[in-house]
């Protein structure tokens, strides 16, 4: 498991540090910082998953393998897309 923390979304609730203190530290105002690289070994996965799920602003996300990500649409034929979307000129 690999996680990322978006500090711009963090509202300082501190729930993440409560569940997984070895992965999240709080600054003087209560905002979280990710400790380490975001790589989570199997034995720590339940605590980090709980922190991810309990974050009220969803500032913690699990990163997935890039190969499983959907590939972008490479068809750039505007007329075809406009027809599919119901746009009439």
From TrEMBL:
Assigned keywords, A-Z: 3Fe-4S, Electron transport, Iron, Iron-sulfur, Metal-binding, Transport
Pfam assignment, any one: Fer4_15
GO molecular function: 3 iron, 4 sulfur cluster binding; metal ion binding
SUPFAM superfamilies associated with the record: 4Fe-4S ferredoxins
Cofactor: [3Fe-4S] cluster
Biased composition (Basic and acidic residues): 78-89
Keyword Transmembrane listed: no
Region Disordered, annotated ranges: 64-89
Keyword Iron found: yes
Protein name: Ferredoxin
